[in-house]
Structure formats: structure tokens, C-alpha cells
């Protein structure tokens, strides 16, 4: 394969412009500010208990997806790279959930 054909294959898609990256950065900053506000609203008693944690997990997931899609370029690369990234992520999440169940929930169940 010549260097010209490799160059053409590489440029089959367009990467985002600086404006897109700045926009994503602003969105991430706003989501982070909302996360801080949720935490302090719960600490100060302005927010009902039990609402902040699911909201924080949801906002963190959105931020994670944005970072992975744009800053890690998985949105523009092959689906194989996405799979290589997501499989260990899912496996790690499964292990963490299993450990939480094992050490937090099971010891409290009478046998």
C-alpha cells in the first residue's frame, strides 16, 4: 500500500473543529458545576436525601461518554476500538457491583 492510499484512508472522516472541542469543554464544565451544586445542596439540606447520588452517577456517565467519544476519538475510529475499550469497562463494572453486593448486602442477610 502506498503512502498516498494510506493518507486517503486516514482522511475518510473529518475530525471535529476547535469550536466543537471548546463546546464540549464548556458542556463538561457546566456538568461538573451541576455535580458540585448537587453535592452541596444535599449537604446543606436543600435537596432530599437519596436524590443526589443517582443524579451524580447519571451526570458522571454523560461526562464519561462525551470524553470517550470526542477526546479519545472513539466516535470517529473503528468500532473494534470501541469494543476493545468497552469490554474491560463492562467487566470492571461487573466486578465492582459484585464486590458491593458481596461485602455490603450479603453480610446483612441472615442465614
Please give the structural blueprint.
Elements: H1 3-10, H2 18-43, H3 52-71, H4 79-105
Short description:
The protein has 111 residues and is mostly helical.
Mind explaining what this structure looks like?
By secondary structure, the chain is mostly helical. It folds into two domains: 1-77; 78-111. Helices cover 73% and strands 0% of the residues. It has four helices and no strands. It has helices spanning 3-10, 18-43, 52-71, 79-105. Helix 2 packs antiparallel against helix 3.
Proportion of residues in β-strands: under 5%
Low-confidence stretches: none
Total domains: 2
Please describe the biggest sheet, giving its number of strands, its sense, and whether it closes into a barrel. Answer: none
Rg, please? 20 Å
* End-to-end gap: 66 Å
Enumerate how many helices there are, as a single number.
Answer: 4
Secondary-structure class: mainly alpha
Mean pLDDT across all amino acids: 82
The shape, in one word, is flat
Percent range for helical residues?
Answer: over 70%
Strand runs, count: 0
The assembly state of the depicted protein chains is single chain
Listing every helix as H and every strand as E from the N terminus to the C terminus, the arrangement reads HHHH
Amino acid at each position: 500500500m502506498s503512502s498516498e492510499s494510506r493518507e486517503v484512508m486516514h482522511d475518510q472522516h473529518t475530525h471535529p473543529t476547535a469550536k466543537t472541542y471548546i463546546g464540549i469543554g464548556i458542556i463538561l464544565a457546566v456538568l461538573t458545576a451541576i455535580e458540585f451544586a448537587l453535592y452541596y445542596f444535599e449537604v446543606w439540606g436543600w435537596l432530599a436525601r437519596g436524590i443526589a447520588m443517582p443524579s451524580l452517577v447519571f451526570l458522571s456517565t454523560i461526562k464519561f461518554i462525551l470524553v470517550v467519544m470526542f477526546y479519545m476519538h472513539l466516535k470517529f475510529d473503528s468500532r473494534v476500538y470501541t469494543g476493545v475499550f468497552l469490554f474491560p469497562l463492562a467487566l470492571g463494572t461487573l466486578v465492582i457491583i459484585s464486590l458491593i453486593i458481596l461485602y455490603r448486602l450479603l453480610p446483612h442477610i441472615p442465614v
